[in-house]
Amino acid sequence: MRAVISVIGKDKKGIIAKVSNCLYGVNANIEDISQTIMGELFTMIMMVDLKESSADISQLNDLLQQIALEMKVEIRVRNEEIFTIMHKI
Question: Fewer CB within 10 Å: N-end or C-end of the chain?
Answer without folding.
Answer: C
